[in-house]
Amino acid sequence: MNKTYLLPNSTIGIIGGGQLGRMMALSAKAMGYRVIVLDPTIDSPCGQVCDEQIIAEYDDVEALRELAVKADVVTYEFENVDNGALAKIEDMVKVPQGSELLSITQDRILEKAYLESVNINIAPYAVVVDKDDILEQSKSIGYPAVLKTARGGYDGKGQIVLRSVEDVDAASELLKYGSCVLEAFIPFEKEVSVIVARNASGQIETFPVSENVHQNNILHTSVVPANLDRDIHEEARAIAVKLAEVLQLEGVLAVEMFVTTSGALYVNELAPRPHNSGHYTIEACNISQFTQHIRAIVGLPLLKPELVRPAVMINILGQHVAGVNEQMGDYSRWYVHYYGKKEAKVDRKMGHITILANDPNAVLIDLEETKIWE
Ligand code: AMP
């Protein structure tokens, strides 16, 4: 029989050897696939758990070709893969997420233009290339505003909040990294995200909405279900479904949104891959975002995600490792994940903890009492 899905023992190639690749690989291994990762670091988080590593830069076309020859399907775990290099292997191997989705999501200018073109609500913005542009555009955008580099930013790197015209001089320093977007600061009440999956047959499934708190622009906690009115849950999920459809997504996509006090939703960012705010799915749902991603890219039907129990996910950054290691023996309900990174640098994502509980607020209070995350 001619199967449209990849059978176990087929090989999945992953570009990027970080924690997202690692958790994708663990899901793929559980399903019986072979996994090869391409990453410049020896013994990367993903390299530690997969069958083979190709040690090379993400834009090394020869290495990407080697991956394409060895793998039956290729996926990526982050957006800063060189899309030109990736496009060169698309005729050699199936790359379900595609280089086009990558080019849209790795450039804020293209991403915003795309979101506007499909009528998704986003913060008012303008593309700026010099200081005069900022001065001119801020007349209509107003203050506070946020200046963000078009490319290369993550975890809040490459962005500055402008409170008044006096901040323009300092902020325009960002322009030396290239064109930027200046966008209105949204006085959000909550930040939420939805992970949506779609496969080549057009089946689409969303995970429950997660409510996210950032500290220093880095995700700190996710609480699920998000504490929102039912219609906002539905609207957030509908936005994610619409994006999966128009993008003809294959794999998972994370859609980050702001919610204002009046209940308006603004899409802030897209990530064409599993996302930190979806880690809770490993224990809290009947299927994780990683397994769903693998099912989508190998052509299997998707599972309908169900929240088995409410959950809190908290990130372990470098500065939290000592405290977590000291106290994890005292908490039998902590599902502790570490990513196998050697050096616990400040603000580096080293792992995360998920806790299942009917009362997420009580969990947040318990976590505060550990004083690990002060
Ligand atoms: P980003 O890199 O775009 O995901 O931004 C990182 C974080 O900065 C977001 O999660 C928000 O907390 C904050 N932020 C970014 N853009 C805005 C905005 N336009 N208004 C308010 N907060 C923002």
From TrEMBL:
One of its GO terms (cellular component) is cytosol. InterPro entries: ATP-grasp (IPR011761), ATP-grasp_carboxylate-amine (IPR003135), ATP_grasp_subdomain_1 (IPR013815), PreATP-grasp_dom_sf (IPR016185), PurK (IPR005875), PurK_C (IPR040686), PurT/PurK_preATP-grasp (IPR054350), Rudment_hybrid_motif (IPR011054). ATP binds at residues 108, 148, 153-159, 183-186, 191, 214, 268-269. Pathway: Purine metabolism; IMP biosynthesis via de novo pathway; 5-amino-1-(5-phospho-D-ribosyl)imidazole-4-carboxylate from 5-amino-1-(5-phospho-D-ribosyl)imidazole (N5-CAIR route): step 1/2. It is an enzyme of class 6 (ligase). GO terms for molecular function: 5-(carboxyamino)imidazole ribonucleotide synthase activity; ATP binding; metal ion binding; phosphoribosylaminoimidazole carboxylase activity. Keywords: ATP-binding, Ligase, Nucleotide-binding, Purine biosynthesis. Homodimer. This is N5-carboxyaminoimidazole ribonucleotide synthase. It comes from Listeria fleischmannii 1991.
